[in-house]
Amino acid sequence: MLSIQGVHKRFGEHPVLRGIDLDVARHEVVALIGASGSGKSTLLKTVNLLEQIDDGRIVLAGDDISDPRVNVDAVRARIGVVFQHYNLFPHMHVLGNVTLAARQVFRTPRAQAERTGLALLERIGLADKAYEYPDRLSGGQQQRVAIARALATDPELLLLDEITSALDPQLVGEVLDLVRELKAGGSTIVMATHEMSFARRVADRVVYLKDGVIIESGTPEQIFERPQRAETREFLRRLRDPFE
């Protein structure tokens, strides 16, 4: 589904991604872990063409989307993205937010888009909030709406960027449960997360980044129970006891 080949990205003189190679199979869930500044979010932004790469290639389902001649809007229409801040439009009710892309980008008739949107809201347990405005929802509810909005156009690939980091701890569980449902439904997902227990439970593969380089990649069991690289062991040790 996704092939990232030798990708480099710099901001000025500062290298952020230094030769990233990563393949993601259809229906696979890949979790990117690493400290702040390791390149996780930047990598996701390059896939969605929010950041232009300096070198390398990104291929989505056989199409080179890093080609400068590519239709950026057409590529983004194939990818669903959810950020840590929900980015819901405050002047639109929940159903309007969920159906916006289908109506405006794909020109889906309003009635059809709203049927799909209401079915999605039913799926995430928020059908009764369809005509509420975002400021009437909890953070966890807003994030679930953002995920529903990303799913409304049936994307080939779903990118999740630290989607629980802006939530109070008691709201994290409901969002993570939804992602587990998406995995069970066969979605292809690449997610940056600081929730190690979530990565362990949901991901098929965990990729540890440090300073823009993939240090280690493997199953959750391999990475969390038997990491091969000293850098990975040190990162996980510091997560367990950040004051050591």
TrEMBL record:
<dbReference type="InterPro" id="IPR017871">
    <property type="entry name" value="ABC_transporter-like_CS"/>
</dbReference>
<dbReference type="GO" id="GO:0005524">
    <property type="term" value="F:ATP binding"/>
</dbReference>
<dbReference type="InterPro" id="IPR027417">
    <property type="entry name" value="P-loop_NTPase"/>
</dbReference>
<keyword id="KW-0472">Membrane</keyword>
<dbReference type="Pfam" id="PF00005">
    <property type="entry name" value="ABC_tran"/>
</dbReference>
<dbReference type="InterPro" id="IPR030679">
    <property type="entry name" value="ABC_ATPase_HisP-typ"/>
</dbReference>
<dbReference type="InterPro" id="IPR050086">
    <property type="entry name" value="MetN_ABC_transporter-like"/>
</dbReference>
<feature type="domain" description="ABC transporter">
    <location>
        <begin position="2"/>
        <end position="236"/>
    </location>
</feature>
<dbReference type="InterPro" id="IPR003593">
    <property type="entry name" value="AAA+_ATPase"/>
</dbReference>
<keyword id="KW-0547">Nucleotide-binding</keyword>
<keyword id="KW-0029">Amino-acid transport</keyword>
<keyword id="KW-0067">ATP-binding</keyword>
<keyword id="KW-0813">Transport</keyword>
<comment type="similarity">
    <text>Belongs to the ABC transporter superfamily.</text>
</comment>
<dbReference type="InterPro" id="IPR003439">
    <property type="entry name" value="ABC_transporter-like_ATP-bd"/>
</dbReference>
<protein>
    <submittedName>
        <fullName>Amino acid ABC transporter ATP-binding protein</fullName>
    </submittedName>
</protein>
<keyword id="KW-1003">Cell membrane</keyword>
